[in-house]
Amino acid sequence: MKKTTILMILFFLIGCSYQLSEKNSTTGLQTTSLADDFEDHFMIGTAISTKQIEEKNQITLRIVKNEFNAITPENVMKWELIHPEPEVFIYEPADKLVSFAEENNIFLVGHTLVWHHMTPDWIFKDDEGDLVSREVLLSRLENHINKVAGRYKGRVDAWDVVNEALNDDGSLRKSNWLKIIGEDYIEIAFKMAEKAAPNAKLYYNDYSLFEPEKRKGAVKLIKDLQSKGVKIDGIGFQGHYGLTWPSISELEKSIKAFSELGIDVFFSELDISVLPRENGENQGADISINIQIEDKLNPYPKELPPFMKEKLAKRYYQIFAVFNKYKDDINRVSLWGVSDADSWLNDWPVKGRTDYPLLFDRNLKDSS
Ligand code: GLA
Q: Ligand 1: which residue has its CA nearest to atom 8?
C-alpha cells in the first residue's frame, strides 16, 4: 500500500488534510486515489444512483472515476426498474451505466437478478391474481435472466444472482420464489445466469452475514450449491453497519468461514449509520421496515457534531482494519453510494432523517 489509507479514511471523517484527486487541479496537490491506495489489497467500489448515471451530477461522476474501480447500480438493474411489465424492458439507464464502466475501465457488478423486494407482483400472479405454477414462474425467470444478463454478456463482470434468500436464523426465506418454485430456485437461477452470461462471476449477496446462525445458513447454502456442481463464485456481505454492530469477532469468523469455501468474499454495500435504531435490535437491512420519524430518531438534522464524527471515524478505522487483516481473502469493498446525500439510510428504517454513513459529505468534501 502506498500510504496508510486507513488513516486517510480516518482523516476523511474527521476533516483532516487528505485531498481528493478531484481537487488537484485547484490545489495543485498530488495525491493518489482510494483505488490506487488499495490496489494491492482489494477493489474499492461504490453504488451509482440513477441521477448519477444520467450525468446530472458531474462532480460525483468525477469522484467515481477518480476514486473507485468498481461500481454497482443502486437500482437500475433491479427487476422492478429494468423489467416493470411482462413485455416492457427499460434498458437505457443500464446501457449508459455499462458504457460508463467500460469507458473508464471499472469493474461492473450487475445487481440483482432474483430478490423478493423491488420485484413486480405480476411475476408471481396469473390473470385472476392467483399464484402461478412452478413452470410458469421458471419460464418468467429464465426469460428475465436471458434478456437482462444476456444483453450485457461479456460486459457486466459479475452478477449478484440471488439477493437475501436467507432469514436471520439461517433458514430459507419464505418468499414467493421459494413458495412457488421450491428450494431449488436458487440453484436454477445460478444455472440460468451461467448460461446467459458465461464469463461473469456469479454471486450470492445478503445482509447480517456476521450473525452466527445466518453464517451457518449461508455456508450450508453455498456448500450445497458446490456439491451439486453449480457455479457460484462469491458471497457478498452487504455491510450495512452501525457504530455498535457488527461484533468484530463475529465478522472475522464469517470472513474466515466463507473464505474456506474457496470463493470470492467481498463487502458489497458498505455504509455505517450514526443514527439510533428504533430498537437496539434491528441490525439488519430489511427494506420493508418503515418507522415514523420523531425528533429523537433524527438527532443531527443539520450537521454531525465533532464527537460523533470522531466515533464514526474510529468505527470506519476498526472495520477497515478487519478488511486489511483479511486482504488476502477479500477481493472488493464497495460503499453503498458516494456521498451522504445519496444514501438510502436517510430514508430507512425511518423516512426523512439525516444520516452520515459514507466517505464524502453532502457538499462532496472529503470529510463529514
Ligand atoms: C439492499 C439491496 C440494495 C438496496 C439496499 C438499500 O441492501 O441489496 O439493492 O436496495 O437494500 O439501498
A: 163
